[in-house]
């Protein structure tokens, strides 16, 4: 199959009064660039991120947010794209439930625990947030083809949003992706390419393609815009808690971007006076089979050494995480920690979350709950402090680890006597 490039020049974004984003800036050296499809500093090769006009950000108030739609676009005044509702790409993601988790808290010996449940998004993962922002930026930049490298949830979301917006989608995934994620991506009719290799192999190919084809690669050349969508998970938690920050959060780590953007959201809200600027701790969660950031944290080093992933938590299987060093910085600055858990612990935690709170999280959710348990056991996380954990996806996408584990209580003939003989009516 030959994929024809689009060679039309793509314009940059014009900063206007409605958009608080004014430039791209280097995270390392501070060099600035126009708002465009770019993600690497040409001076030092460090990643770029969005810079904002502080005066425009300060126009956002609690009242203006609360008057907005009950989705992520209520925070449009704090985001770099989507300011023209007629060009915005949206399936209505965001404002997902912040569920009190008293039974899980009691089982773990905690006082106050919440589950931010992003499985309620349109394609059942938090990726709908970042994709909605990224594709809105891509459309404003003049792209008609969007692409990505994905471990599954991003593929699903890009394919769905592109179909909705009438954009062409080209999605690259590892060949051994879970069936649930493959089918739920292919159904939208875009181009789905399975690559013989792991996510890091897919991502390398995607980076090469980005140099050859003038497409919007949401987690390559559009990455600065894409990443900002994760901030809405921080904004929502604060708003849903009555405009205050939680004392502790536990966030799963794949690339590390989600963890850093939740922290960025909390800092922005405090700086803008939308919440009281109270201290909080950020904890990161990884699977032992793909734990480069947790390993670096345990060693007390700043360098994140790449690993070859081998875990059931495929949505977190990024062996060379782009934002790993920044995740380390956040955990250390806030007094948090980053830890990891085994596949067996992940499955046990998936079942615990479902049994205790009726939330069926995917394997990444199991990682988060299992790491919460480990952090408590090791005395790193305060059981008395108000804590929010993030469930980023739906367990229906990752059924394989539970096959043979979550099974019928009994298999009996269709007879009352058989039901009673099995003791199923006993209290």
What class would the helix/strand composition place it in? alpha/beta
Point out poorly predicted stretches: 1-10
Shape: globular
Adjacency order of strands in the biggest sheet? 4-5-13-10-11-12
Supply the number of helical segments: 15
Number of strands: 13
Radius of gyration: 22 Å
Proportion of residues in β-strands: 5-15%
Rounded average pLDDT: 94
The largest pleated sheet is described as: 6 strands, mixed
Residue share in helix: 25-40%
Distance between the termini: 61 Å
> What is the H-and-E element order?
EEEHHEHEHEHEHEHEHHEHEHHEHHEH
Modified residues (N6-(pyridoxal phosphate)lysine): 127
Family: Belongs to the threonine synthase family.
Protein name: Threonine synthase
EC number: 4.2.3.1
Overview of the structural elements:
It is a single chain. The protein is of the alpha/beta class. Helix content is 35%, strand content 14%. The chain contains 15 helices and 13 strands. It has helices at residues 54-57, 62-66, 102-108, 127-140, 153-165, 179-186, 199-212, 223-228, 231-240, 257-271, 292-299, 324-334, 343-357, 363-377, 416-421; strands at 21-26, 32-33, 48-52, 98-100, 113-117, 145-149, 168-174, 191-195, 216-217, 248-252, 281-287, 338-341, 387-391. The strands form 3 sheets. A 6-stranded mixed beta sheet has the order 4-5-13-10-11-12, with helices on both faces. It has a 4-stranded parallel beta sheet with strand order 8-7-6-9. Helix 5 links the parallel strand 6 and strand 7. The longest helix has 15 residues, at 257-271. It is globular, with a radius of gyration of 22 Å. Residues 1-10 have low confidence and may be disordered.
């Amino acid at each position: 199959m030959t994929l024809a490039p689009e060679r039309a020049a793509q314009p940059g974004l014009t900063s206007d009064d409605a958009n608080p984003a004014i430039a791209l800036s280097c995270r390392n050296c501070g060099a600035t660039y126009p708002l465009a499809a770019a993600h690497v500093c040409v001076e030092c090769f460090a990643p770029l991120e969005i810079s904002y006009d502080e005066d425009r950000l300060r126009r956002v108030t609690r009242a203006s947010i609360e008057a907005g739609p009950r989705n992520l676009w209520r925070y449009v005044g704090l985001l770099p794209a989507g300011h023209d509702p007629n060009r915005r790409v949206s399936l209505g993601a965001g404002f997902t439930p912040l569920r009190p988790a008293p039974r899980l808290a009691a089982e773990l010996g905690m006082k106050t625990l919440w589950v931010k449940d992003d499985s309620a998004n349109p394609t059942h993962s938090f990726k709908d947030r970042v994709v909605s922002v990224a594709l809105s930026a891509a459309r404003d930049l003049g792209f008609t083809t969007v692409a990505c490298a994905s471990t599954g949830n991003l593929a699903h979301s890009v394919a769905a949003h592109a179909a909705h917006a009438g954009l062409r989608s080209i999605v690259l995934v590892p060949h051994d992706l879970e069936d649930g994620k493959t089918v739920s991506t292919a159904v939208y009719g875009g181009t789905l390419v399975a690559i013989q290799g792991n996510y890091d192999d897919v991502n390398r190919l995607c980076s090469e393609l980005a140099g050859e084809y003038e497409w919007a690669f949401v987690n390559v050349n559009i990455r600065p815009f894409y990443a900002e969508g994760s901030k809405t998970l921080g904004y929502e938690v604060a708003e849903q808690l009555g405009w205050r920050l939680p004392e502790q959060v536990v966030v799963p780590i794949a690339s590390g971007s989600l963890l850093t953007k939740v922290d960025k959201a909390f800092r922005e809200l405090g700086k803008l006076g939308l919440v009281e600027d109270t201290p909080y701790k950020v904890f990161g969660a990884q699977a032992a089979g793909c734990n480069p950031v947790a390993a670096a944290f345990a060693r007390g080093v700043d360098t994140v050494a790449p690993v070859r992933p081998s875990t059931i938590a495929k949505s977190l299987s990024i062996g060379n995480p782009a934002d790993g060093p920044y995740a380390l910085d956040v955990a250390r600055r806030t007094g948090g920690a980053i830890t990891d858990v085994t596949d067996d612990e992940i499955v046990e935690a998936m079942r615990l979350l479902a049994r205790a709170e009726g939330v069926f999280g995917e394997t990444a959710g199991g990682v988060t709950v299992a790491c919460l348990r480990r952090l408590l056991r090791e005395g790193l996380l305060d059981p008395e402090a108000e804590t929010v954990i993030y469930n980023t996806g739906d367990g229906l996408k990752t059924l394989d680890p539970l096959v043979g584990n979550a099974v019928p209580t009994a298999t009996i003939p269709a007879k009352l006597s058989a039901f009673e003989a099995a003791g199923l009516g006993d209290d």
